[in-house]
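Changelog-linked ticket: 7TS example.
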Amino acid sequence: MATSGDLPFDVESVRRDFPILDQRLLNDKPLVYLDTAATSQKPRIVIDKLVECCEKYNSNVHRGIHQLGDRMTTELENAREIVQRFIGAKDVDEIVFTSGTTMSLNIVAHGWGRKFLKPGDEILVNPMEHHANLVPWQLAAKATGAVLKYIPLTNDGRLDLSHLDELLTTRTKLVAVTAMSNVLGTINPIGELAQRAHAVGALICVDGAQSVPHSSTNVRALNIDFLAFSGHKLYGPTGIGVLWARKELLESMDPFLAGGHMIREVFEQSSTWADPPAKFEAGTCPFIEAVALGAAIEYVTKLGIDRIAKYEHQLSVYAHQRLNEVPGVRILGPSVEHKGAILSLVIDGLHAHDLSDLLDREGVAIRAGHHCTMPLHELLGLTSSARASLAFYNTRSEIDKLIEAIDSAKKVFQRRSGSRPGATR
Ligand code: 7TS
């Protein structure tokens, strides 16, 4: 086990930045939060920023009529610049604030997909996508006559690129792909896929919901076309997310939501659109949340996203080692070097929901279910899995508690079910 000297930063001091982590749950069990892939916890600096906005300068943005409005607008536009720097975007106007990854992907599927896809065009997806990067494309395909094609997965849960030449043709107009699977943890080769997509004239839309909070992302170095991610998984608040797209794409797309702020001129029968990003930010945008997301990104940047990635990888290696020692546990997805710090488990004879219930009694919070990836679970022959997902505020001793809790859950369940192997509910 590494000493604190081997670790890229002082985890205990980082933990003190997250007020929620220091608490005891039922039966005085300390909280072990292993559900960051669903939503991350928020550092004090983010909570303080939300309060500061509400207490000091809350006022609607882009109205330019009084001092509070000016301050809030400055804060919002500053947050946009923070996002721009964080993902290496060329232009601040390429940063669209949305309500989250789901909204961002819907904006692309509607605004670009429904406008540009034609009957017979192909959208290349794969079975590990979250429903948010699948269902909007199903709807766009239905509306336009385009078809969805699937890149198969290897047995260990990676994209099988051996058939890519047959799948990726001049009929392909878009590759929709996650940079990191929320179930398998698989990290996909986005740069290579972007290059292959562009070689046949297709665009690439990247779901960064899981990758952006845990590793550095540079949209220009990756040479991608669209990127979507959520604030609440990036240590920021709920209700805020980002769509990044190259400026010329944002200019050519149709707006998705219509109303105030996104227009240039409105006539009785028609309207013209504001320039991006306003064109995609109809109505009052979640400006307080956007400003707090800026604070979250500054926090992450100060810690260092590469140090975060390194620490999380070390922790993930340790968690894989420990879990692989537990009899009857199968970890889904590829080996640890090909994945982020997500461990989805199947345990012989123990249903994922029962496992998460029993772990919860020990204060260990994990998630059970299909995690919005029904096609993936179908492919794996499962209806659900149990998922522990890690962040830089987790520790090795929390992994040890997870293992202890799994051991005792297995015992409880064996007693209850009379040790019937394979017994599921
Ligand atoms: N894409 C991926 C890869 C995700 O993991 C999620 C959320 C989304 C898109 C949607 O993000 P939202 O913020 O718009 O909801 N994933 C999960 C999860 O794995 N457990 O809860 C939410």
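Closing comment: Example verified and attached. Residues 37-38, 100-102, 130, 132-133, 178, 182, 207, 209-210, 230, 367, 371-372 surround 7TS (CB under 6 Å). Residues 10 and 191 are 32 Å apart (CA to CA).
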